[in-house]
Write a structure and sequence with these properties.
SH3 type barrels; binds coenzyme A
């Protein structure tokens, strides 16, 4: 954790989040001699003098004058095991919500609705975690109305353990009875950032920027159809975001018979996006120009982004990959990722860009 005292606006932004508050003790601990201690829990209030934190053993007030550092941490694990696998499916879904953007967001009880003019399923689907605060059928009606008002088909990202059947879930059964279609499965993979960083095969320099440059977008646009204005909003919509890129040149040669797709000499040959939210890093938009594949560029970029997250104090990383994307799954498994859970998109009527 950083040693500088957090500013007021940063504290306000963390209200409602699970945090660790490092603060000075009024007297050194008589046994260990320690002068600092940590409190972990939900930050429920902050006034001019105190932070109020709800912990597992009760409510604790931390004097702001004694506060040394405040950092968001991942939701409490619900099962034993490695931290990147011990988080519940619902908590991980909530954490992932912060990593991928949307042009417009809505809520129905706890459910989170996203619309982005049809650009990406993630940006145009509802994450039905928690309670919608009304009977299930009525909730689905409301979601359908919300999307209809935006000229989009209603779509739900229904999560479960790997291999789950949507019709085993009450919401999934309701949607299927309404004629929703299930699109390909997406796997959610997780790992510790340090473990991914340690598997860096090395490679050309990686640039990391918080700005979304036109050349980065040009490279990204070769991986999927983009919608000018919308794509930028979706990619930039996260509390913290970094765009990683590997530039052409520097001794990199193209694969025989293939030509790079972007502007010669300027468009990145590999890109990836990193976001941070709820104490997790999120990796996405990983792409290597076909003319430069099979040289470890994606592995190097993934490792560099994980290292960046780790250096910033974020220990865990998630990503989403379509279950039938063999090359990407091989890459991520090689980089140490494991399957945490899965989700399927259930869409009313027509389907959208994947
Ligand atoms: C998935 C993807 C990003 C991988 O990019 P890449 O830069 O080719 O990845 P790497 O070079 O690290 O690994 C690819 C293969 O090359 C091999 N390789 C890496 N370095 C090598 C080297 N120096 N010599 C020989 N082989 C090498 C890897 O072992 C791997 O082989 P495998 O698929 O049999 O496991 C790329 O295929 C892509 O852009 N796909 C389309 C977009 C996509 O699906 N993105 C993922 C979204 S979740």
């Amino acid at each position: 954790m950083q040693g500088s005292r957090p500013a007021d606006d940063r504290i306000t932004a963390l209200l409602g989040s699970r945090v660790v508050a490092r603060h000075r003790l009024s007297a050194p601990d008589p046994v260990t001699g320690a002068t600092l201690t940590d409190v972990v829990g939900e930050l429920v209030a902050a006034d001019a003098q105190y932070l109020t934190i709800t912990t597992r053993s009760g409510t604790v007030r931390v004097s702001r004058a004694h506060l040394v550092a405040l950092k968001q941490v991942p939701p409490r694990p619900v099962r034993r095991g490695a931290a990147h696998l011990a988080i519940s499916i619902e908590d991980l879904q909530r954490a992932m919500l912060l990593g991928w953007g949307a042009v417009e967001r809505g809520t129905l009880g706890d459910w989170q609705l996203r619309a982005s003019g049809g650009f990406t399923q993630r940006g145009n689907s509802t994450v039905p975690v928690g309670s919608p605060g009304r009977p299930l059928r009525e909730a689905v009606d409301r979601v359908e109305e919300w999307y209809a008002a935006r000229l989009l088909p209603a779509c739900f990202a229904l999560a479960g353990p790997e291999g789950f059947r949507p019709d085993d879930d009450p919401l999934g059964a309701e949607l299927l009875s309404r004629g929703y279609t299930t699109a390909g499965r997406t796997l959610v993979l997780t790992q510790r950032t340090a473990a991914v960083a340690a598997l860096d095969p090395g490679g050309p320099p990686v640039t990391l920027t918080s700005d979304l440059g036109p050349q980065w977008l040009l490279a990204y646009g070769q991986s999927r159809p983009t919608v000018s204005g919308t794509t930028e909003k979706v990619l930039l919509d996260a509390a913290q975001v970094r765009f990683g890129a590997i530039a052409p040149g520097g001794g990199l040669s193209q694969r025989p018979g293939l030509r790079a797709g972007g502007a010669p000499g300027t468009t990145p040959v590999a890109v990836a996006r990193l976001s941070v939210g709820a104490g997790w890093a999120g990796l996405g938009a990983v792409w290597t120009d076909p003319a430069y594949r099979g040289r470890g560029l994606a592995a190097h970029l993934t490792a560099r982004l994980a290292a960046h997250a780790q250096e910033g104090g974020t220990d865990l990383v998630h990503l989403q990959v379509e279950a039938d994307n063999g090359p990407a799954l091989r890459l991520y498994r090689r980089m140490g990722f494991a399957v945490h859970s899965a989700y399927a998109y259930l869409t009313a009527g027509q389907s959208m860009t994947p």
